[in-house]
């Protein structure tokens, strides 16, 4: 069996970290090592870990690393990768879960590529109950998927250690999207899987990255970094993503600027059902924005 290193960065994850680690320890694929990187949590994360997994940590079956200061999921993930001894790297966010067959089902597909992405379909709530199951189709055009930012979610990604590109230290947020864009531009082999073995938790915790303003700031940073590097054919799809995030965070000026730019380059972006639905959902907020002025 090929050894797999499972890297779990955690920051203030006292509420969910036990479930996450349990989902790793319960994997049917057993040749694994678990590496937990505590990114200077200020809650009871460490207490929860040692209460439930202290013996495994002491025996070295779980590697426990701790940062003195909070450095971000990107740096924590890289630290775990550097400390790994496996041939393959699987990442899991501290609030997400895996089906027990996750590694067993996905690992064989990784042997002929550099990166795999197991499309998350099941989304759970704070209690672990299923909120929704996505039925969205996987694009046949891999580049379109990547450059429209439909691929991310560290919990759904795995890499060959030999070719792992490491997360960009400059991207504390959107580091997952940045990595996939950079990897694709470098010509790395990427494969999308549809095994439905990743459970993404949706909650209102302040640690949830997509809820913070930095999420938007780093989306704009991502655009500035790659707008001249993404193939022109796919730039409109990237701009539609930036437009959607801008509307989400109430920046309607940027939202419309990106929308118009995308349509002017390729009017067919409006044929994407997801783009239309997102625009309609976000733009409704304009009335609330105006009324609050």
Give an overview in words.
This protein is an alpha/beta fold and 293 residues long. The chain folds into two domains: 4-201, Spore Coat Polysaccharide Biosynthesis Protein SpsA, Chain A; 232-291. It is built from eleven helices and eleven strands. The strands form two sheets. The protein has a seven-stranded mixed β-sheet, with helices on both faces. The chain has a four-stranded mixed β-sheet with strand order 5-11-7-8. Helix 1 (17-25) links the parallel strand 1 (4-10) and strand 2. It is globular, with a radius of gyration of 19 Å. 38% of the residues are buried.
What's the CATH C level of the largest domain?
Answer: Alpha Beta
Number of strands: 11
**Gross CATH architecture of the largest domain:** Alpha-Beta Complex
Strand content: 15-25%
What is the 3D shape? globular
Adjacency order of strands in the biggest sheet: 3-2-1-4-9-6-10
Averaging pLDDT over every residue, what do you get?
92
Specify the CATH homologous superfamily of the largest domain. Answer: Spore Coat Polysaccharide Biosynthesis Protein SpsA, Chain A
Tally of helical runs: 11
Give me the Rg, rounded: 19 Å
Helix/strand/pairing category: alpha/beta
Uncertain stretches? 286-293
The separation of the N and C termini measures 62 Å
| CATH fold-level name of the largest domain | Spore Coat Polysaccharide Biosynthesis Protein SpsA, Chain A
